Amino acid sequence: MLGGSNFGELLGAGLLFLLAKKVKKPTIWIILDAVFLNLMWIFPFLTFDEKTDNNLIFAICIVPAMVLTSDEANEETGVNELAAVMSFLYSCYIIITTFIVFGLSQGLDRFNAEKRPELGFMTICILLTVLSFIICALYLLFAKIKPTPEEEELERKNQEMQVLSGVPKEVDVPPPGIDPYHDYVDNRTDPSDVKISYNLQCILVSDYEQASIVCYDLKTREELKTIYISTRQVRHLCIEENEIDDALIFASSTLILKYDLRRLLALPEKRVQLKIQTQPFYLWKSEACKWAQGIAIPYHSKASSTKTVYVCDIACNTIVQLNLQNGELISKIPIDRPFGLAFSQPWTNFTAAEYMIVTQVEPKHTITIFQREQDVEGGDKWNHFKTLGKLGSLNDELRNPCGVVCDHNNGTIIVADCDNARVQIVSLQNFEWIARFGKPMSTSPSDHYISMEPLSPETSFHFTYYPYGLCLNELTGELFVCESENKFE
């Protein structure tokens, strides 16, 4: 029996090497284990000796033992899924056995009284085996087997491709046809958003496909560090400016996380892997959104005792307001299909009001502007002020507007008109369309990149790809544009 057990574990280890990547659901191994172990009752009816081949039957029955011990903890939840399932099943086994053992013992006593104990044992075991097969069959037919993390991520990406930009091809050739005044920065797989930390003198670019945030030197444009987010894509970024240090806030599917940016940049490795579950040194984490998009901090919040940050939740058609200190949910603002988000600075030469500017993607294709007022309790109240644009390609029309930013020095709103492959500019004084630049080039796109373009109504610049995320350098007037190969689909 000992030799058979060891041989069974050896076979189980071999199956693990061969099938671990193909059979990833732990429930399948549990069912296999239950079926094999349920057949152990046949051993009393078999004859074992040193020469018989029946010893192999015992070894085969122990095969699942090694396989069942091989599952690792899920990095995001910190829970060993297989252990959790087995604990549940074992607990159910104990409870059910407690109720049925009395009936089974009564049945065995009757067979013993009739001097047929072996027949009674066989009858009960056959009944249990049949019931086990029925339970396994019902489970496979009606129960929803939990998908693997890889399948969940693939499904989530497929869903996002139906709403957001498609999955690009990874090519290392620089984009052709760049104008002399166009400053090419770097090839990225799928750049989505870009932000500047003035205190730390760096540019941050989110790379959705690579699930990373790339940091560049603000002056030299040299790459400083790449921060990889374990098992999650990251798209939208936000910088909380402090007197000395800055904080990085980013959206990753259902999560909004805040990190000390100086601490991230101070890590010795040039390639950093952030393991959200096992190494949670974030300042706070929020799951207030089902699908977080654009993030922005209002200007009045910087001087307020209760600092807040706003996040677009496109899945719930809301904008959520979070406490900037702890990430707790404060309120929600209903709005259809919110994507990009920006705030205007109040009390400037162009306007005294503070506006919240929200881009809305298909089927809206508009820019909605809210004006801030204080409610009776002194909190923020955002009233609908104006809606700009409609579906189309004319000068005052939009097709899936994405990134948006305010130019406070010139009193304008700059929006990435993604599917029209251009950037449009709106006045903050009268909300009229005053300029635009870019349209699709005739050449086929071959990669993604980050571009900078001077704001000029007369420019003939053509985008190589589709403008997605925007950021304005308030010190130099440079406009950073993340371009994506695919339209907003």
UniProtKB/TrEMBL annotation:
Keywords: Membrane, Repeat, Transmembrane, Transmembrane helix. The keyword Transferase does not apply. It comes from the Eukaryota. InterPro entries: 6-blade_b-propeller_TolB-like, MFS_trans_sf, NHL_repeat. PROSITE patterns: NHL. The keyword Transmembrane helix applies. NHL repeats lie at residues 388-429. The chain crosses the membrane at residues 28-48, 55-70, 82-107, 119-142. This is Uncharacterized protein. It comes from Naegleria lovaniensis. The lineage of its organism: Eukaryota, Discoba, Heterolobosea, Tetramitia, Eutetramitia.
